Amino acid sequence: MDCEQLLQVTQNGKDWVDYLAALLTPTIAVLGSIVAFLQWRTNSNRLKHELFERRYEQFMVISNFLASIMTSGKSKPEEQLKYLSGTSGMRFIFDEEIAKYVGETIWHLAIELECLDSELVGVPVGEERTKNVHRQGEIKKQLNQEFKALEEKFSKYLQLQH
Hints:
By secondary structure, the protein is mostly helical. It has one domain. It is built from 5 helices and no strands. The chain is rod-shaped, with a radius of gyration of 33 Å. 13% of the residues are buried. The model has no long low-confidence stretch (mean pLDDT 85).
């Protein structure tokens, strides 16, 4: 092999090194983009899971509150405290409709039931007592219906879709 052929082989090898060096930067950029996308997707799924956990926790507080009323027939102060503390901030992770439903519909029925129960103390048998007891029965039936419909109302918020 003479010098001219050796120089040509060396030049061809240098060309390949130049090509590989030129392709290295875009390759690193593509790999970096893939890693960034995968991290974004992981963080997005984690956020969905954390939101689900918070929503489910509040759903269970409401469900347990209604179940306690169904089993005891009244709204106990300790259950009310759990309900109020467990449902605070609902408007931040649910829509306004759910927050209003929880804050007004369920809560007002439970408090009305408690008020009627406390008014019943010392009332003799008669028409006033009968009206009170019937109204309590209506509220309990309504709360029972709310308990049955609870899953349906919350179902769109308690879906883990990835």
